[in-house]
Putative neutral zinc metallopeptidase
Amino acid sequence: MQLLQRWRSDFTLAYVLAHEVGHHVQNQLGIIKQTSELRKKLSVTDYNRVSVAKELQADYFAGLFAYYLKEKGYLEAGDIEEAMNVASTIGDDRIQEMARRNVYVDSFTHGSSEQIKEAFELGFKYHDINHSMKFFDDL
């Protein structure tokens, strides 16, 4: 809710909801189950990498959704920039910096601000499900 209070706009809400719907899509595809099973088998650090991939895929799906909003004529000037501004504030790196802690990449569970922005942009660019699997390539 803090995110929505800080970035009061219709597209911020759409972005956050699209990310969460992305998790629903992952559930329907069996990705949530597969990644959850890995939690028991991997170290915390290795599982964090899986978690980052899962979160970035949800951001990719949010970008895909934004593409379809654009195609339907629902995006307004500045909406994509708004999404990028939101993404730049919600990365694990930014959250750790705001908490005045050292940035520790191995503790990331959602990805850096730059990774989140890139995932959204890729979803907007490719707007297909095939490219969304790239986040799991290095695991």
